[in-house]
């Protein structure tokens, strides 16, 4: 029994069709699954499938290759999925892999072959193609320090077929993957619901003296018992001064009376991410100063969300959010008009207290792919996550929801998760 129901084969058929439509005439495209990454001795990390393979096929299995050749002479060669053939040893130690029939039912790819036929098939088809689209990780935040299976596969292809012209698959996928289907959005909605359950659990658990990792454990327990495989990314559970460290992940400090606990967490469900940030007063009540900063961040969050509309430039959006934050920081007395008047346009005055971006794409990856230079489209899903970090006060406040862009506005996937300071205090003291 699967932990979660698969998306429909029709979803993957649509995804492949959208990708194929953008290929040049006579082009072939190849995609490889991720490695199972080793640790030490005979240990391995849990397998995480390549997101493009998930987007195009839904196959969550290692040693998988997808070949797309929309203009192939033989219709049987236009989509081919290569999977590992189960033998008795694999069946005993790991469990049986997908059969050909199961792979077809899940993906909608009619032609499924064993991986052992991959090289022979490519050799046969490469003479027909005008070029080959290969994928490599072109995410703006990517820091690749290991040789991936994808990189090895691409190197093998280029060395074996040096005469074949290579094209980039990433720009096409960054456009097609960024627009989510109704099924994908529903899956993300479910992940957000699990995240809500974890947050509700933590609001009833938090008190002075508990450790950040105990809070992390409460989330993990609730996530897993609700069908998630766990966190969609490494969680940030940061109390007091640690909340001012943007990528704090040690989660080892003790939550002290009078501190605010910042939690940037999200459940994964069916390979799709959620991404939420909430702040809780460890004592159950915000101080007046904490409340003012909290309300300032919430005001920016709500106004920023209203700016997200189809056709809007992300560059203009972030500039407008900066203006909203400047207004709130002036009201809090953290900057003054002289700071604004003499600010460096490349690093405005508000950046002293709000130094990161406000929104990013989210989907199969928590920092999902998308084209930042193109206008916002219906079906895009963004986070909205402003924050104010006052190191001299040991106070960091960030609030974050996941937002689906619609034709006439937006839909908040986390509207059911407590956000107002009053609602949080009421829940913690019920």
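Q: What amino acid sequence fits the structure above?
A:
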């Amino acid at each position: 029994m699967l932990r979660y129901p698969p998306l429909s084969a029709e979803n993957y058929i649509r995804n492949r069709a959208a990708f194929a439509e953008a290929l040049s005439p006579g082009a072939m495209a190849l995609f490889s699954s991720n490695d199972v990454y080793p640790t030490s001795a005979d240990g391995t990390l849990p397998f995480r499938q390549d997101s493009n393979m998930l987007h195009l096929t839904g196959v969550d299995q290692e040693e998988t290759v997808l070949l797309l050749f929309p203009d192939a002479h033989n219709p049987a060669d236009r989509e081919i999925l290569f999977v590992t053939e189960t033998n008795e040893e694999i069946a005993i130690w790991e469990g049986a892999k997908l059969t050909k029939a199961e792979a077809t039912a899940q993906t909608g790819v009619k032609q499924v072959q064993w991986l052992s036929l991959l090289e022979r098939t490519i050799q046969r088809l490469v003479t027909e193609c005008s070029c080959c689209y290969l994928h490599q990780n072109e995410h703006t935040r990517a820091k690749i320090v290991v040789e991936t299976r994808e990189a090895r596969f691409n190197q093998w292809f280029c060395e074996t077929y040096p005469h074949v012209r290579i094209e980039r698959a990433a720009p096409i996928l960054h456009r097609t993957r960024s627009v989510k289907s109704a099924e994908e959005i529903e899956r993300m909605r479910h992940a957000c619901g699990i995240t809500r359950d974890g947050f509700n659990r933590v609001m009833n658990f938090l008190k002075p003296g508990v450790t950040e990792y105990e809070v992390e454990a409460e989330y993990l327990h609730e996530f897993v018992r609700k069908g998630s495989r766990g966190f969609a990314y490494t969680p940030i559970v940061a109390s007091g001064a640690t909340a001012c460290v943007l990528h704090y992940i040690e989660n080892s400090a003790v939550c002290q009376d009078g501190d605010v606990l910042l939690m940037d967490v999200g459940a994964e469900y069916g390979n799709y991410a959620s991404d939420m940030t909430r702040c809780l007063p460890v004592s159950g009540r915000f101080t007046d100063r904490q409340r003012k900063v909290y309300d300032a961040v919430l005001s920016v969050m709500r106004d920023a969300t209203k700016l997200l509309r189809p056709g809007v430039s992300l560059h203009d959006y972030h500039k407008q959010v900066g203006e909203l934050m400047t207004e709130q920081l002036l009201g809090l007395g953290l900057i003054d008009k002289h700071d604004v008047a003499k600010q460096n346009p490349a690093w405005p005055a508000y950046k002293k207290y709000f130094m990161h971006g406000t929104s990013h794409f989210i989907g199969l990856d928590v920092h999902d792919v998308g084209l930042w230079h193109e206008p916002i489209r219906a079906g895009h899903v963004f986070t909205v996550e402003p924050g104010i970090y006052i190191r001299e006060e040991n106070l960091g406040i960030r609030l974050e929801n996941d937002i689906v862009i619609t034709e006439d506005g937006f839909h908040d996937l986390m509207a059911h998760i407590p956000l107002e300071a009053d609602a949080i205090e009421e829940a913690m003291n019920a």
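Q: And what stands out in the fold?
A: The chain has two domains: 9-176, 182-428.
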